[in-house]
Every structure is written in C-alpha cells, then in structure tokens.
Write a structure and sequence with these properties.
heterodimer, A: 563 residues, D-Amino Acid Oxidase, Chain A, domain 2, 16 helices, B: alpha/beta, binds flavin-adenine dinucleotide, binds iron/sulfur cluster
Chain lengths: 563, 416
C-alpha cells in the first residue's frame, strides 16, 4: 500500500470537485483530487450542456434563478473558451398555459434574470424550424457549455498551482478515528494497488454518489438520484437554446451544443446511481414533447441517447423529484453529525459549480486557518495548454491563414471553431475522426496525456466518435494509433490484445447509446457500422483479449448504464 | 440563406446532410479531389462541414471553393445528400462575407462580356484575346488562366440573326408554339447552335418564339453571387412565365441554362412562387423535348444516313437533369451514325472553374481521362451538349466539338 499526504482531499472529479480543487489551489492550500473514472465520468459528463440564464427556475425556485444569473456572467468572464454564447429563448407554444408568461417576466425582474420579449416573427427568423404557432417569445442569456473542457480547464489550472489529480482511483474506505475522519483508502483501478491518503480535511464532491461516500464514514446523507435522459439530434437543428415558457417539466428544452442539438430531459427516480437504463417510453416522450417546439423533430435524425443522474439532496421527504429545490447544500459533518474532517457538497447545477466550490472552500479554509479569499470569480482560466483539449490554441501554423478566419478570434467558442482550425492548418488530411474533426496530432497528444486509460477517455478529451457515424470510421483508426504509440513506448511487449479490447469496449460504449434511436437515417448508419465491424472486421470473433493493466474498461466500480 | 419556415424543398436541401452515412463513396468519385490535395472532397466540404456552419457566425471554411459544382457526388451518393447544393450555398456565404473577387465578378457576367465582344467588333476582340501578352496580363492582374479556353466572339448575335431572317415557310396544319431559350453562349459565341435548333424545331412543325431573356444566372450561382443570380432569375421568370402559364414549353440547347431554370435557381435561391415553379416545370432540354415528340410519334424521321462513329460526352449539367441520355436516344435513329459515350466524369471546365488561374491545372487534370478517350477514338469531331465543355474538349483533346443538335440538323439535311 502506497501512502500519500495532503491537506485537503477532494473526492469526485466532476464539475464541483474540479471547481473545489482550483479554488483550494488558488488559495495556496495543498490539495489532491481522486476520481474513480476519468474526469467528468459522472453526471458532469452526461449533462444537458446548458449554461443556465436562470430563466428556467424564476418561478419555481427563485434562489436557484438568482444564483444562475450571477454565475452565468462570471463563467462567461472566466472561461469564455468553454462557452458558446448561443442565447436562449422561452417560447409559449399552443400547448402551454398563456398566463405563465407574465408571471415568468415578473419573476425574471425580481430575480435579476435578464429577459426581453421579442416579436414572434423575429424568433422565427432566428430559428426557422421553431413552431410557427408560438404566441410569445422571450430572449434570455442562456448559453451552451462544454463540461469536459471546463472540468479539465479547472483541474489544469489547479495543477499549475500545485494540486494533484488522480483519476481511476476509487475511494473504498474512509479512515475514522473517533469523531474525526483522517484520510481515505483508494484503489488504483489500473494497477489494483491500494493507496492511503492522509489529510486534514476531505471534501466529498461525489454528486449522486455522495450518500455512498458518507456511508463509508457511517454518516447518513440522502441523495435522491433522478435519472434524466437526453436525445442528441444529428446536427444543430437550432442555434439558440429553446425553452418552453412554462413550469419546468420533462422534455421542454433543446440545447445546441457543439455540432448537435440536445432534446431533454426526463426525471425518473433510480435507487442506485450506477444502475439505470434508457427506456423506449422516455425517448418517445422526449420526441413527442419536442414536437411542440420543433414540429417534425420526430422524423429528423437522432444521433444517440444517454442519461445522467441528478444529485438532489433531500433534507426531509419530498413527494416528487422536481419539487426538491435545485439549490445545492453544503453539509458540514462536524456541525451536522459531530464528525470532524469532512464536508459534503451536493445538489446544484453545473452552472453553479463555482459558487458551490467557493462556499465549500470558505468553510474548509476557515477550519484550516487559511484566510486567503476566493479568487475564482476574478481570475480567468487560461485555455488548456493540453493539446488534446478540443479548443486548443494554435500549434505552429501560420497566423496569416488563421487571420482569414474571423471565428478564430472570438473569445467565446463558436460552432465552426474546429473546422476553421482544420482549414487554417490544412490538416484535413490528418483527420482520424472525420465527423468531429479530430486530427491525428490531437489524438496522439491525448493518448500520451496522463491518466488516459481507454478510447472513451480519448473521446472525452477530443470528441472522438461523437459524430454521426458514432465511431464507425474512427474506432479502428484510433485503436491502431493507440497500439502504435503504446508499443513505441513499452516496446514489443504490448501485443495486439489491448488494442482489441479498446476497440470492442469503445464500440460497445457507442452502440449502447445508439440502440434507443434506431430508426431512419441512424438505423442505416448503424447497419453500415455493423457491416464494417461485424461482417468485414469480424470483431465479435476476435480471440479473447488478455487483461492488461494499462486499460481500464468494464471495471465494476465504474460501469454505468446497465442494460 | 434566409430560410423560409417549414418550406419542404428548403428542408430537403438544408437537412439532407442528415442522410449522410459517411460511406465515402462520393469522395472516391469526386473528380476534383482525385487530382488535387487542395480539395478535401465532397463528404468533408458537404455534409460534414455543414454541421459546423452557422448562419449567424462567420464562415468557418474556405476549401469548399475548390468544388467545381460538377455534381458527380450527388449522382453517386447512395442516400441522397444534396452535396453540390450545400457546397454552392457555403460558397455563397463565403462570398457574402468576404466579397467577390473582381475576376469572378467579371467571368460570371457572361452577358456583359458577350455584349462587349460579339458583333462587328468581334474580330478585334478575338484578336486581343488571342494575343499572348494580353493573356499574360489578364492572368497576372486578374487571375484568368493564360492558357484557358476562351471562346471566340461571334460577328453577329443569334438574336440579330433571328430578327433579320426571312420568316419560315408556313407549314401546313396547326403549329405548336415553343419558346427557345438560347442562353449567352449561343447568342454571343455560337449562333449556329441556335440556328440548328430553330431549324430542327421548325422542321418538326414548331413555331419558335424567341422571348426576351437574360443570362440564366448559373455562372453567378457557381461564383457565389446569389444576389445577382436572383435578379437574373426573377427577370427570366417574368419574361418566360406568360408562355409557361399557357403551356408553351421552354426549350434550351444549353444543358446548364435549362438546369438552372428547372432546378438550380429555384432550389439554391429558395425561390418558390407559382410562377417560378411553372417556368421550371415547362423547361426542357431540347433533346428531352424531341424525345417526347418521338415517343408521341410526332418526330419526323426523314434522316439522311451519316456514316460516322463519334465520341459523345454527356456533360455533368446534363446528367444532373436526371433524364438519361436523350441526345443518344434521338441520334441513334439516324442511319449509320454511332455515338460512343465517353463514360468520363467531367471535362474539368465546370463553367468558369477551369478559367481561374489557381484551378486551371486542376480542370485539365480532371478532364485528362476524357481527353484521352476522345483522342484514342481517332475522331476529329466530338459531340457534347454543353458549350463550355465543348470549348474545353477542343482545348484539351485538340478536336472540334459540336452540339448534338448540329448533327441532327445535318441528318435532316437542313441548311443553317
Ligand atoms: C440529465 C441532467 C441534465 C443536466 N443538465 C444540466 C444543465 O444543462 N445545466 C446545468 O447547469 N446543470 C445540469 N445538470 C446538473 C449538473 O450536471 C450537475 O449538477 C453537475 O454536473 C454535478 O456535478 P458534480 O461534480 O457535483 O457531480 P458528478 O459530475 O457526478 O461528479 C461526481 C464524481 O464523483 C465520482 N465518484 C463517485 N464515487 C466515487 C468514489 N467512491 N471514489 C472516487 N470518485 C467517486 C464519480 O465518478 C463522479 O465523476 C444536469 C443534470 C442531469 C442529471
Ligand atoms: S460537385 Fe463535383 S467537384 Fe464538387 S464535391 Fe461534388 S463531385 Fe466534387
Ligand atoms: S456518398 Fe453520400 S452518404 Fe456517402 S459519404 Fe458521401 S454524402 Fe455521405
């Protein structure tokens, strides 16, 4: 068993944990983060992609609305490269209660959520596929945010200030001495090695898993896991976030993010955040509701479906998930349970991750006697230096070519950003994933980067396999490049087995999300992919791959979306 | 593009990217990406790049400008993606954002050029354009390839010939009226093509009407000047609709003009009025129309034998009509005449594409297999329905090239 010592241990590598880590590091506190999978392995990597304006919560949950409105402006300032300024619309469709709109506007005024009514014709000009029968439209400051990138941006920045990040480390136990928690025991999933981490304080930022972590110290934290399913459409059928102007409910929002538009979501209680599946009824519900916003959406090409689990903290029993306020809760176990050395931060939204981190670190820093104030709202996060990051800065290519593309000068992310980069760099001959424009150079950098364990990690870093063909053409290429790089590093010993395992694991991951949307164009695509992998390459008949410690794939601790 | 809400034709174009299954068949077939690394190919610039384009954000790409618009990709795509149209629109956005280069503005104005050069001053204009140092200057200053095939201006325009000619002999019986759309090439460069068309149509009992008309706008469309193309199409619709609405067919010898009236302009420009539709429905390629007459037993068969075997190239623009090979169907009725189809993709000129300095060589390389086929045929004459392709064939293969209607007129023994 290895032993590490740090001052603050953060458990959970989602938005919250990463935000906490950066906040700690900026205040000069020695800290480390452990995450059982890759960064964003949990809910953060499976969310809807919306930078909330607050509009969604103005009537139902004004406090959340206020928080979102404030944080929205801060995040735009500190990490513009992770955000696309799509703007948002709230529209009243024929299916919606007309009286809500006035309440909505009044509540926006009260909560400080910027809103402006625009003419229906203007809304339709802006979004031609929008239901022409809407009666009113309101513009808000919604945006789209890349949570992979933002999480990496936070941890990368924290690293610059000395923080440590350990991925594929699952916390199996907390060490408690009397009424004090003094450390955690983790397993390194790649080597099977146990690691003990001694620390002065633990911040439990495990979202929907927070109850499980608390239980390791004998504490009770009720986190209701509410599963939400989303459907990504093949392309950006809208370029603005479109919300229905009504009390928040299932399937009432479409978020354009990167190259897709995401319809969602649902909210279904699941007893265990690690065990859930997507049902055909949910998909039907999402598409049926989507029809109110975009008539004909049912017949358009859906790319895939996925689900995430909401971490909703429940103080006392609420009857329905959506009735639990979205506001986060900071649980100081010393005050709450008389057990020192750990706080849990649960609930909230991606949009409020920074605020949650600030409040959490305020409490912990105070306990440690650190008085440095929080600076995360002022200090801009530099675009990640990691070349694997999707929106990396120019590598070496001529600035003259780049100057021709106005899009590359934008501080905010724009849809065409990647294409402009490929064009300016003349790198289209090097595309491995053609749909999402991932070059060989980017992929190799991601393979070489620390902590990468499988192709799905590369996907999170680069968007590999996230486009229309869902890995049809890039999976075998990426597996081959991985094999090439790793055998160059480890010599001949690597053999072909790891590549085989990577290939089948990634295909399995992609196909899982495809099955709920198999109709029309996507069915045709799936059939072609099937022909490539099963008929031509016969991957189902490859000899069993030998387990290899450098690949973590289907480990029980990190498997999600069963069935 | 100003997209009209819930316009189905519009959706079938804009949303056609969703049909792409990334199979790469188009990339393998594209004649341009086969010869140059400057063009990433139809899949990349078409459905793939389209997912990154956004109406209210700056254009993210420029390599799409290397698409020649030949539509080979549309022909081979198994799922019906409108690749060439997506490309044309993307180029138009680029042009709208960055402005249209003077050179492209010039070469896409075939009417203006024609009016300058055709007529009594033609010999002088031709002399100038045949003058090496001037061509060199044009290449340096404007970027019009020095070696590119520029047609010779005609001493007289087709319209002036038609106005002045003695009225045709009144045939007996009722005469069907047809409007002949001659296009710029026939009017300013090759009036004999129009004369052959008029002769053949009249020989078959048609009364040929020459309505006022403007350039069809295809060069404008393919150079991304959609605003000017819209003005041209609006004018043509205003001129032609009165006939079309009466059921008078509009017949053209230029496969590009007729394709533009039928489909390209309405589709790319999102023009959907009933008048636009009627004009589109009433427009025919001349051999398409003659074939219809033949099928109704109304085409005269008094052909004289022509004992020849000639290479025939169906131009890209004709293939985009999706009407088969009507010129072959009709000319094979001529005793002794045998036309051998080229089976080549594209001659490489693609309208004005091959005239551009940076694209001239690409055009020549694209056309190389066609030139080779023609040269190997040993014939000193090739047959092709499109004017710019004929000029390119002559330039690349060194043989004369004729419109099939000229051959048909000859078979009928018509003096033109
Ligand atoms: C369907 C859905 C849509 C959403 N859409 C939006 C949206 O559009 N906008 C918005 O602002 N918010 C949205 N949210 C909310 C937002 O996604 C979450 O609030 C946020 O991502 C939570 O981040 P987190 O870091 O707290 O939790 P998580 O991202 O879940 O991070 C917790 C991490 O802890 C790790 N972990 C768990 N157990 C252990 C262990 N034993 N050892 C080590 N690590 C462990 C997990 O692997 C996980 O990575 C959405 C939520 C859902 C479910
Ligand atoms: S239109 Fe022709 S040149 Fe353009 S992409 Fe298609 S095949 Fe290639
Ligand atoms: S041929 Fe059609 S389906 Fe295949 S890659 Fe090209 S556009 Fe896509």
């Amino acid at each position: 068993m290895r032993t590490l010592t740090t001052d603050v241990l953060v458990i959970g590598g989602g938005a919250t944990g990463a935000g906490v880590l950066r906040d700690l590091a900026l205040r000069g506190i020695r800290c480390a983060l452990v995450e059982k999978g890759d960064l964003t392995h949990g809910t953060t990597g499976r969310y809807h992609g919306l930078l909330h304006s607050g509009g969604r919560y103005v009537v139902k949950d004004p406090q959340s609305a206020e928080e979102c409105a404030r944080e929205n402006e801060i995040l735009r300032r500190i990490m513009p490269h992770c955000i696309e300024d799509t703007g948002g619309l709230f529209v009243v469709t024929p299916a919606d209660d007309e009286s809500y709109a006035d309440r909505f506007v009044a509540a926006c005024r009260r909560t400080g959520v910027w809103v402006e009514e625009i003419a229906v014709s203007a809304a339709l000009r802006r979004e031609p596929l929008l239901n022409p029968r809407i009666s009113r439209a309101f513009a808000v400051r919604d945006g789209a945010a890349d949570s992979f990138l933002a999480t990496h941006a936070n941890t990368d920045d924290a690293r610059r200030y000395g923080a440590q990040v350990l991925t594929y480390h699952v916390v199996n136990g907390l060490e408690r001495v009397g009424d004090r928690i003094i450390g955690a025991v983790c397993e390194d999933l790649r080597s099977g090695e146990m690691v003990r981490i001694h620390c002065a304080a633990i911040i439990n930022a495990t979202g929907a898993w927070a109850g499980k972590i608390a239980a390791l110290a004998g504490l009770q934290v009720s986190v209701v896991a509410g599963k939400g399913t989303m459907v990504a459409m093949n392309h950006r059928i809208v370029n603005t976030v479109i919300n229905r102007c009504k009390m928040p409910d299932d399937g009432d929002i479409i978020v354009p993010i990167h190259t897709v538009a995401v319809l969602g979501t649902t909210d279904i209680y699941v007893p265990d955040p690690d065990v859930y599946s997507i049902t055909p009824e949910e998909i039907r519900l999402i598409l049926d509701e989507g029809e109110h916003l975009i008539p004909g959406v049912r017949r358009m090409r859906a790319l895939r479906a996925w689900a995430g689990v909401r971490p909703l903290y429940r103080e006392e029993d609420a009857t329905h998930d959506r009735d639990i306020p979205r506001t986060y809760r900071l649980l100081d176990h010393e005050v709450r349970d008389g057990v020192a050395g750990m706080v849990s931060i649960v609930g909230g939204k991606w949009t409020t991750y920074r605020l949650m981190a600030e409040e959490t670190v305020d409490v912990v820093a105070h306990r440690l006697g650190v008085t440095t104030p929080c600076r995360t709202a002022e200090l801009r996060i530099e675009a990640s230096a990691q070349p694997a990051a999707p929106l990396r800065p120019a590598i070496s290519h001529g600035s003259a070519a780049r100057a021709r593309f106005a899009i590359l000068a934008s501080p905010f992310y724009m849809l065409g950003h990647r294409l402009a980069e490929v064009e300016a760099d003349d790198s289209y001959g090097d595309l491995v994933c053609e749909c999402e424009l991932v070059t060989r150079e980017q992929l190799e950098a991601a393979i070489e980067s620390e902590g990468t364990a499988n192709l799905d990690d590369l996907r999170r870093d680069t968007r590999l396999g996230m486009g229309p063909c869902q890995g049809g053409f890039c999976t075998y290429r990426a597996a081959a490049i991985w094999h090439e790089r790793r055998s160059a590093r480890y010599g001949q010993a690597a053999g072909a087995a790891p590549a085989t395992r990577l290939l089948t694991h990634f295909l399995q991951e992609r196909w899982k999300g495809l099955t709920p949307t198999l109709w029309g164009d996507q069915l045709r695509q799936a059939r072609l992919d099937e022909l490539i992998y099963l008929e031509t390459l016969a991957v189902d008949r490859l000899p069993e791959a030998i387990p290899d410690e450098t690949i973590v794939t289907g480990h029980a601790a990190i498997a999600t979306e069963a069935g | 593009m100003g997209v009209m809400p819930h316009d189905h034709i519009e959706l079938s174009l804009e949303q056609s990217l969703d049909h792409c299954i990334k199979c790469n068949i188009c990339t393998a077939a594209c004649p341009v990406s086969a010869v140059t690394d400057l063009f990433p190919g139809p899949k990349y610039v078409g459905p793939q790049a389209q997912r990154f384009r956004h109406e209210r954000q700056p254009a993210p790409d420029e390599s799409v400008d290397y698409c020649s618009g030949c539509r080979v990709c549309n022909e081979v795509c198994p799922t019906g993606v409108k690749i060439a149209e997506l490309n044309a629109r993307a180029r138009a956005r680029l042009v709208a954002e960055r402005g249209i280069p003077l050179r492209n503005r010039l070469i896409s104005r075939s009417e203006v050029l024609g009016r300058l050069g055709a007529g009594p001053q033609a010999p002088l204009a031709n002399l100038a354009l045949g003058f090496g140092p001037l061509r060199l200057a044009l290449e340096r200053v404007l970027g019009i390839a020095r070696a590119a095939p520029l047609p010779k201006f005609s001493r007289y325009t087709f319209r002036s010939w038609f106005r002045r000619r003695s009225a045709p002999m009144a045939n007996s019986g009722p005469r069907r009226q047809v409007v002949y759309f001659h296009g710029c090439a026939t009017n300013y460069y090759e009036p004999w093509v129009g004369r052959a068309a008029v002769a053949v149509l009249e020989h078959n009992g048609c009364e040929v009407i020459i309505a006022p008309q403007r350039c069809c706008g295809l060069p404008l469309l393919s150079n991304g000047d959609f605003a000017a193309a819209r003005r041209a199409h609006e004018a043509n619709v205003a001129y032609l609709a009165p006939y079309a609405l009466r059921g008078v067919p509009i017949i053209g010898t230029s496969t590009s003009c007729t394709l533009t009236l039928k489909e390209e302009a309405p589709e790319l420009l999102g023009m959907r009025s009933a008048m636009v539709r009627t004009v589109a429905e009433q427009t025919f390629d001349i051999f398409e129309y003659l074939r219809m007459m033949y099928e109704c037993g109304e085409l005269r068969a008094d052909f004289r034998p022509i004992e020849r075997t000639l290479p025939y190239h169906p131009p890209c623009q004709l293939r985009a009509h999706r009407i088969g090979r009507p010129a072959l169907d009709i000319l094979e009725l001529v005793p002794g005449l045998r036309l051998v189809e080229s089976h080549a993709d594209c001659c490489g000129i693609a309208g004005t594409y091959g005239l551009k300095r940076e694209k001239y060589q690409i055009g020549m390389d694209v056309g190389a297999p066609l030139f080779e086929t023609i040269r190997r045929s040993g014939s000193d004459l090739a047959v092709c329905d499109s004017e710019t392709c004929r000029w390119q064939i002559t330039h690349g293969a060194g043989v004369a090239a004729r419109h099939p209607i000229e051959i048909l007129a000859k078979a009928y023994g018509l003096v033109i």
